[in-house]
Amino acid sequence: MSAGFVEPLEATAIMLVEISARYIAENPPSNQNIMRITAKRFNQQMDYRWGGIIDFLKLHYMLSKRPQPYWQAHTQKASIPDSLKEDLEIWGHRGPINTDFDSAIELFPADSYQYVMYGMGFKPDFKRQGYLYNERAQADRIIQQNQKIIEQMLRTLPPHRQYTQQWLGA
């Protein structure tokens, strides 16, 4: 567990142990020749995970408004990883989305970054995205249409208990 523990996010230890165990269980090398390739791929995946942890933690520190020197040091551009600098440049115009991440099993997917960024006052300039974020009327129509569908389903579907009893043949 200590191999994956990063203060203040101790959950990273559990996640890294689980991902490591899963990788090892799914990729047992069938012979010595394959071991080198398997080890290389495992290390690449772990490097990717560690980079994601560092970026996610750094985001917390650099968005903080705390005045103490420790916290202020984290806002210095030189202390920000290049990968996070690139992400923040893009996210300044549209915010994080799932395609910004390379893995099917992300420790911190786009939602996690959105919660931290928006919760700490980071505000993308959505106006630069043009049509993508300026379709309020269309969004309102879709929401209303979905609400009608929900109301129809609530009127026509049986209550949960009745449905499960019917399904179970009881």
The helix/strand series, from N terminus to C terminus, equals HHHHHHH
Q: What is the domain total for the residues?
A: 2
- Give the overall silhouette: extended
Give average pLDDT, whole number: 85
The gyration radius over C-alpha positions equals 23 Å
Please report which band the strand proportion falls in: under 5%, 5-15%, 15-25%, 25-35%, 35-45% or over 45%.
under 5%
Category by helix and strand content: mainly alpha
Would you give an account of this structure?
It is a single chain. This protein is mostly helical and 170 residues long. It folds into 2 domains: 2-127, no CATH class; 135-170. It is built from 7 helices and no strands. Helix 1 packs antiparallel against helix 2 (32-63). The longest helix has 32 residues, at 32-63. The termini are far apart.
